[in-house]
Design a protein that fits this description.
With 134 residues, this protein is mostly helical. It is built from five helices and no strands. The chain has helices at residues 22-30, 43-59, 75-91, 112-121, 123-133. The longest helix has 17 residues, at 43-59.
Length: 134
């Protein structure tokens, strides 16, 4: 039992380039941006993130999703795979344009830096909001 999806989901796979030797293969597999062939027991989480983001994009609404858990369980890899698939859909004109801003709590030394990071990535939108609402 889960939430009914508004949209169908593409297959989750992003191929990695072929390694030239064992050391390169290890380096590619251990890289933070590497997506393994499967994330065991993460299909429900993928579905939740995908449907949340796509629903909000297509309906023109905002939203916030908090993702937490034990390190190394596939949270970042799952989100990155969702966003790669949504970027493809955006590039194909299937969904509205968007800018993905990743805020990972492990990167932030204080909460203020979160806002600075978002502003730097999308400063024109931030400027519009400041002018319009202030």
């Amino acid at each position: 039992p889960g939430r009914d999806l508004l949209f169908s989901m593409p297959k989750r796979e992003t191929p990695l380039k072929e390694p030239q030797n064992v050391l390169e293969e290890s380096r590619l597999r251990l890289h933070a941006a590497a997506v393994p062939k499967s994330l065991p027991c993460r299909e429900e989480e993928y579905s939740d993130v995908y449907s949340f983001v796509k629903d909000n994009l297509c309906l023109g609404t905002g939203g916030c999703m908090y993702i937490s858990g034990v390190p190394g369980t596939g949270k970042t890899a799952t989100v990155h795979e969702v966003m790669r698939n949504l970027e493809k859909e955006k590039n194909n004109g299937e969904i509205p344009c968007f800018t993905f801003v990743e805020v990972n709590g492990m990167w932030m030394t204080d909460p203020y830096k979160c806002y600075v990071h978002i502003f730097k990535v999308n400063y024109m939108h931030s400027l519009f909001i400041l002018i319009y609402y202030v």
